[in-house]
Design brief:
heterodimer, A: MetI-like fold, 73% helix, globular, B: mainly alpha, MetI-like fold, 13 helices, Carbohydrate ABC transporter permease (chain A), transport (chain A), transmembrane (chain A), transmembrane helix (chain A)
Chain lengths: 289, 309
């Protein structure tokens, strides 16, 4: 982090910066603080059978904070099952996406072949097909081939968005790698697959980590496919449950808040640990080519 | 070995006679995957849009030609949906820009803990949209929502408002949630654009006696205008087919007040009317993909140019 420039009137400037930073922090983090307060405020009455009713009042500082809501969450909702489903699907999506997208990206960046630009444009067009259009046919096709209500089906459905995104991200990343190293390895007698394995993959680790984790986050956060393509508890993911909570089922806000926080925790941790890599990756996959 | 090295060198005018299969092997997994999970389903969607298919009696689906599309022209939910979609796009993208630009300008300054603030700014964007929807439902709840409490304490409201039960209020609450979730990406990309402006420009302007506002108007803004236009286009396309936030918070209601075309298609699907749902989705997709053709061309050009260096 760079030190502040001590210019004339830096005192006023610092005050203004502090005000600005506080405003931004309150805006960005505030809802989470409120969520946390709600999650440690015990419920007056915890009724898991009657939806749309809650005796809650607005409490800013709970007089007797406790983690009772977290216990209640695991006791009354199969939360660990949903959590596990989200983890399986997001991990599967990450692995699948990373493999196919990085192979493809390497092919596009390092080789000139007949049909190269047509194939690339075709994949970009596939990327722009709105998921609204894909929802119904995927539902019908998955029913026919028995992929509805399976983890694999969910992994495939979420790859519709994640795979082209990571492809773009990795194309962008591979383009920044000097190809001289690869050429040197090949002059030294390494085969092309060996070069990919020994030189390209290790050099691209930051890009691969960013692509993989963003695919994980996308899949973890996905609501639409999860809502439409799953109907049994065995494959339902956390976002589907979040909507149920939002509808007031159960209307135990403290418990919902606990669930919401725990649902966000994995992606928040991933982001905080890898934020530099992820931020450049987000920009690359979304806008730049 | 030198032959293999030669294949690595791009833009060789003379190609070898033998076709090199490796690049095709490399791109075929993602090619086949996208073929199976996007291209084939998209074609299936076009077919379904010309049937009266219902999820409850899928086997009895009949081909009805363009009747679904004719039905749309007299369907008030669809016709009003065009306006609702536009209103949603303009509100979300406009307000996102109004919030993201100051944040990006702020983060472009040098100050202590900048890295920390920048990380905090990104937090909403990695939060699951369904959680965002839940939190904003909670905060805007009519009985125990914190927003009501604060507004009443400040004397702005006399009594609690049931925000999500009112057509207009619920729209703005969902927009508020969506903006909170979406603005970090805009801020991040605007910041990246701001950081490419050479500092000398500002120094020269300062020497010439240009004030901060004048510098912003004559140096900063012209530089970031292309990025802004690009973001507006991209976000408008994304928002037009966004469903999550509206559906999680309001299920499109009250009434049909938050039925954008995307939400309408999704709701028809939930009501098993998948033929008509597909038709609505196909119309939306044609409009959006026409808009994104520009984006695709730009991307393809970038990718093809960038990787040949």
């Amino acid at each position: 982090m760079s030190t502040p420039k001590r210019r004339n009137g830096w005192g006023t400037r610092n005050v203004l910066v502090a005000i600005g930073a506080t405003a931004i922090l309150v805006y960005s983090i505030g809802p989470f603080i409120w969520l946390f307060i709600a999650s440690i405020t015990p419920e007056a009455t915890a009724d898991f059978d009657t939806p749309y009713l809650s005796d809650r009042t607005v409490t800013y500082l709970p007089t007797d904070p406790s983690f009772a809501n977290y216990y209640a969450l695991f006791q009354n909702v199969p939360f660990e099952l949903y959590f596990r489903n989200s983890a399986i699907i997001a991990t599967g999506n990450m692995v699948l996406t990373l493999i196919v997208a990085s192979l493809g990206a390497y092919g596009f960046v390092r080789f000139r072949f007949a049909g190269r630009s047509s194939f690339l444009v075709a994949m970009l067009v596939a990327y722009t097909i709105p998921s609204v259009v894909l929802l119904v046919p995927l539902l019908v096709i998955f029913r026919n081939v028995g992929l509805n209500n399976t983890h694999l089906g969910m992994i495939l459905a979420e790859a519709t968005h994640a795979a082209p995104f990571v492809l773009l991200l990795m194309i962008n990343y591979f383009s920044t790698l000097p190809k001289e190293l690869e050429e040197a390895a090949q002059v030294d007698g390494a085969g092309r697959i060996k070069t990919l394995w020994r030189i390209v993959i290790p050099l691209s680790l930051p890009g691969l980590v960013a692509g993989g984790l963003l695919a994980f986050i996308m899949s973890w956060n996905n609501f639409l496919f999860a809502f439409l393509l799953t109907s049994t508890t065995q494959v339902k993911t956390l976002p589907v449950i979040m909507r149920q909570f939002a509808l007031g089922e159960p209307a135990v806000w403290g418990v919902s808040a606990a669930g919401a926080l725990l649902s966000t925790l994995p992606v928040a941790l991933i982001f905080l640990l890898f934020q530099r890599m992820l931020m450049s990756g987000l920009a690359a996959g979304a806008v730049k080519g | 070995m030198s032959v293999q090295a030669a294949t690595m060198t791009p833009a060789r005018p003379k190609r070898r006679k033998r076709v090199d299969y490796l690049p095709y092997v490399l791109i075929s997994p993602i090619g086949l995957l996208l073929l199976a999970i996007t291209v084939y389903p998209a074609i299936e969607a076009v077919y379904l849009s010309m049937t009266n298919a219902s999820l409850l009696r899928l086997a009895k689906a009949q081909f009805i030609g363009l009747r679904n599309f004719v039905r749309m022209t007299a369907d008030p939910i669809f016709l009003d949906g065009l306006w609702r979609t536009l209103r949603w796009d303009v509100a979300v993208v406009g307000i996102e820009l109004l919030i993201a630009l100051p944040i990006a300008l702020f983060l472009n300054m040098t100050f202590r803990y900048r890295g920390f603030v920048r990380a905090a700014v990104m937090v909403p964007y990695i939060t699951p949209p369904a959680v965002v929807g839940l939190v904003f439902c909670f905060m805007f709840d009519g009985n125990y929502g914190v927003v009501n409490d604060i507004l009443v304490r400040l004397g702005i409201l006399d009594s609690y408002v049931a925000w999500l039960s009112d057509p207009t209020a619920s729209f703005w609450v969902v927009v508020t949630a969506m903006v909170w979730y979406g603005q970090p990406l805009m801020a991040l990309i605007l910041l990246a654009s701001l950081q490419t402006i050479p500092g000398e420009l500002y120094e020269a302007a300062a020497v010439d006696g240009a004030g901060k506002l004048s510098q912003f108007w004559h140096i900063t803004l012209p530089h970031i205008i292309p990025t802004i236009l690009f973001l507006v286009l991209l976000r408008t396309i994304w928002m037009s087919n966004h469903i999550d936030m509206i559906f999680v918070m309001t299920t499109g209601g009250p009434g049909f007040s938050n039925y954008t075309e995307a939400v309408y298609s999704f709701q028809l699907t939930n009501e098993f009317e998948i033929g008509y749902a597909s038709a609505v989705a196909v119309v939306l997709a044609i409009i959006l993909m026409t808009c994104s053709a520009f984006y695709v061309r730009h991307l393809a050009k970038n990718v093809l140019a960038g990787s040949s260096s």
